[in-house]
Design brief:
504 residues; alpha/beta; 18 strands; globular
């Protein structure tokens, strides 16, 4: 391999077609491909004596590598030019540059031209394809004074990915809004849009949301990959005994079943899995959702549209005239929806819905606070399932370690295992390329199922608080969220830290 130096003028105007080197990897390794043909690949390297990197490149491409020395500045400038911008505005008068940018933001045609430039298109495509590769659920583009921050939400946790030049923000924002068929000239009001992309054989549905902030529009992309969502109750992580009880509740002919938890805790996936389980030719199932996230065969799904008066409550009234057997209300947000849902459950319909509460017992108190009478609630409510999502330990870098005495004691108390032998050794992930060095890969649910039996029903009629209802349910055998989580820790599925994080 030669050690020839390469001046900045010899870097190509466009990146050569070299798979396997993303802009992020190039920046991290300070390496840029110059050309590739059948005889080999020529790369510019800030440290051409890095034998490990050269061997790695040779193993990736199965070709000889010619390493060319180049300055770190020249390499980064080439990557910037290829993937971020054609023009470097440095050196302009600050006020003039700021004024030019403001004018640009006000001219939709210039924004459209900017968003159509090849480097911008490549950069946006890179962020989306990289997010799909690491199985991110969301991409956040967040504008700040000096840069545009890009973050991915992977297994429910946000990770900083990259900071992009502030000068690229109008182009990236406009490109995303054009793809989502949003109004690029409207920057003062929030907007929503949708992008459909195909990744190989997979069709990815992307929900796009824009929000004006102090330094420009914040854009969030929600990636919905239908192929990777298994709408199967048995797959969600519910313990076998709880799954049997819940399976019995959802087969009842009428009544109200609630699923509760914060945003992003998997409530919608659980309810879709329920719909899949009970869907049959002899049942008419109608849902009202905001938004309809996945299309289910054989089920009538309604998207609410508050702007034209189609709210949860108004849709629910109409649904009941459609002679349904099962009704799914995406969320109980107000007293009117709560009242209609309870009345529907009392008049021969099986009703499912969600609430944003921390635990199962609190959902009952929330409905009472909305004005639902205790006697109606005690007669209609079948059960409440509270849930959270915890990250699973990566199976590629899973390693065993010993819990601290304090954590072990906490687990013993939570699980009610005092006086019994409990293994002190549990597992965690060290971090590897398979899990993006997080130690976690994928998620599973932890659950708390409150079945409304006679004991709980009496507490509801007596108007006791959530702790009183929870005590009655625990006396009947209900496991708390943290208990189910720590049980999964001892089974090697997740870590104590992860359970504490989502149940605090």
């Amino acid at each position: 391999m030669n050690m020839n130096a390469i001046p900045s003028t010899e870097f190509p105007d466009k990146p050569p077609l070299v798979d396997g080197l993303s802009p992020q990897v190039m920046r991290q390794w300070k390496v840029a491909p110059i050309s590739m043909d059948e005889s080999g690949i020529r790369v510019a390297m800030a440290n051409p004596r890095d034998l490990y990197l050269r061997e790695l490149l040779e193993s990736v491409y199965q070709k000889p590598v010619e390493a060319l020395a180049a300055s770190e500045e020249d390499i980064l400038a080439a990557i910037y030019r290829w993937y971020e911008a054609d023009v470097d505005l440095e050196g302009e008068d600050g006020d003039a540059a700021s004024q030019a940018e403001d004018e640009l933001w006000e001219d939709p045609e210039q924004l459209r031209d900017l968003a159509s430039e090849a480097p911008v298109i490549r950069l946006v495509n890179h962020f989306i394809s990289q997010a799909l590769e690491v199985k991110a659920s969301d991409i956040h583009f967040e504008p700040f004074k000096d840069h545009l921050k890009v973050r991915y939400r992977i297994d429910g946790v946000l990770h900083d990915i990259e900071s992009v030049s502030r000068k690229l923000q109008p182009a990236i924002t406009s490109r995303l809004k054009l793809m989502a068929k949003m109004n690029i000239a409207e920057m003062r009001l929030p907007q929503d849009g949708r992008i459909k992309v195909r990744d190989g054989r997979r069709e990815i549905d992307i929900r796009v949301s824009s929000l004006p902030t102090l330094f420009g529009e914040s854009i969030v992309l929600r990636l919905l990959n239908r192929d990777e969502v298994r709408l199967d109750l048995a797959y969600l992580g519910m313990p076998p005994d709880m799954l049997d009880t819940f399976g019995r509740l959802i087969q009842r002919p009428y009544g109200l079943v609630l699923v509760t938890g914060p945003t992003g805790s998997g409530k919608t996936t659980t309810l879709y899995a329920v719909m899949n389980r009970i869907n049959a030719p002899d049942k008419k199932i109608v849902t009202v959702e905001d938004p309809v996230e996945y299309q289910l065969d054989g089920i009538n799904q309604i998207q609410v549209k508050p702007k034209i008066g189609l709210t949860f409550a108004s849709a629910l009234r109409t649904i009941l005239r459609q002679d349904p057997d099962v009704v799914l209300v995406g969320e109980i947000r107000d007293a009117e929806t709560a009242e209609i849902a309870v009345q529907s459950a009392l008049t021969g319909h099986l009703v499912f819905s969600t609430l944003h509460t921390n635990d199962a017992a609190s959902a009952i108190i929330r409905l009472q606070e909305m004005g639902v009478e205790s006697y109606l609630l005690s007669s209609s409510l079948l059960g409440v399932l509270a849930q959270r999502l915890v990250r699973r330990i990566c199976h590629e870098c899973k390693t065993e370690y010993e819990m601290s005495p304090e954590l072990l004691q906490q687990a013993v108390q939570a699980l009610g295992l005092e006086g019994k032998q409990v293994p002190a050794r549990v597992w965690r992930g060290k971090g590897c390329s398979h899990c993006a060095n997080t130690g976690y890969s994928g998620r599973t649910g932890i659950f708390e199922l409150l079945e409304v039996d006679d004991r709980v029903r009496r507490r509801i009629l007596q108007g006791v608080d959530s702790e009183g209802i929870s005590r009655a349910a625990r006396a009947a055998g209900m496991r708390m969220l943290r208990q189910d989580g720590l049980k999964k820790v001892l089974e090697g599925l997740t870590t104590p830290e992860e359970v504490m994080r989502v149940t605090n």
